[in-house]
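I hope you will forgive my troubling you with a question about protein structure. You will find the record immediately after this paragraph.
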Amino acid sequence: MTSLRLGWVSLILVPLLQTCGTQAEFREITFEDLRDKLKGGWAGQMIGVSYGAPTEFRYLGRIIPEEEIPEWRPDRIHNSIRQDDLYVEMTFAQVLDEKGLEATTQDFGDMFRNAKYRLWHANLAARRALKRGVPAEKAGTPEYNAHANDIDFQIEADFIGLMSPGLPVASNDLCWRVGRVMNSGDGIYGGVFVAGMYAAAFFESDVREVVKAGLACLPPESPYAKVILDVLKWSSENPGDWTKTWQLLEDKWDVRDPCPAGALLPFNIDAKLNGAYIALGLLYGQGDFWKTLDVSTRAGQDSDCNPSNAAGVLGVMLGYEQIPDRLKKGIEEIADEKFSFTNYSFNSIIDSNQKWIVQMVENHGGRVEGEKLLIKTQAPEPAVLEVWDDYGSPAERVGVDDPKWQWTEEGPEYASPSLLTVEGTKQIVTLTEKSIVGIGVADGKLLWQLPFLPERRAYNAATPIIDGETVIYTGAGRGTKAVKIEKQTDGFAAKEIWSNAEVAPQYWREMVGMVFEGDP
């Protein structure tokens, strides 16, 4: 086994005076050492995801027995070429190669919307929203994405930290622009935490300090920060037994998961719980690559993504040359093979990272000096506070065929349903055969109804548009109408705001808004 060893001959702390007279801390690293650490980060991700792949989501809410971890074989590293943990983040890396470091959230969303690979959870919900015309800045928000707190950005943020050595503030800025595409709140903080640890890993030899550095990038009020603080506390109280800390995490944090696939079930793809398993692996691994893989994998749930993140961070700390040979054997033979759905190989993604590191460093007061990079390091700063935690607690899973959730009146036509929330009550708004209706999400009961009878051979096929508490609907020969849904003492009522008899399309898809010339 290989434990953390220091080889910092070329990593030198250089205090320099700023013109204002205060001291700024600079770090210098040779390009040779920088590349070794970049290789270590990408190799760590490849090793971690391949190591944990056979157990992914097969052990839910329980520790994987040691004897049920498949024996490592070097040829298993080939699996990493086809892993979404790697090729999805490379989609966002490609945006930087095409748009530069100032790429916007919409730039990242545009690339993501047109990607051809399969997706799940927050990523899938975001791409569906993007294809419906939702702006990238909103695609990851709870308004459009029930998976906003899921793990997705957490497993795709490694490349940001790898481009930000000693620059956690710059890393946070880029995380926010990318993570907004598919996540919100703790879902974004997962990526912020991981990238922050990478940023620290280039110059830090103590894994505990690396975890603290990632924590320092989070707003302390966020649930994500609180769970990482718990891991740090409990690991100090139980230094020799990671399973005790794991159980404390389960008891306190494996609750209230709002993900539709996991609510009230053992399955949990929540970012902060799985992020805790990353920290668990690093803290109890203590710089040992095999042990870090073992703990972060055996914690269960997303047991390939978590060791991928943990091993990637440790790979930067150690550098490629210090990763155990048995784990990295096989990488060089596929080093020029492109990852699925990307233009990148192991070697070329490292080239891309190194190019952007130089520009990132120069943008933040550093410079190139011969064969080394002089980095003006940044102290971590908490990201802006944004929390989606007001959804209550899941109480019961009700299937669409359950008698508790049934609609036995008019059947739907061809319009897609839309989601409306009025004073905390979620409603499905849809056009039926003869009406437009609002149906309670919680119980399937009719909340309000307006007649909207098709004329002659027309039918109701236009998806209602929701703008706050306003519903806009249309149909051939009947014009376009807008009504405001208001809560009353005995239920809900629809009050007409305006009507335009001249605009009456047969079809339209959901959009963010409509613009009329003149009065409606």
Observations:
- The chain has 15 helices and twelve strands.
- Confidence is low (pLDDT under 50) at residues 1-23, 510-520.
- The first strand starts at residue 12 and ends at 17.
- The chain has two domains: 12-376, 398-520.
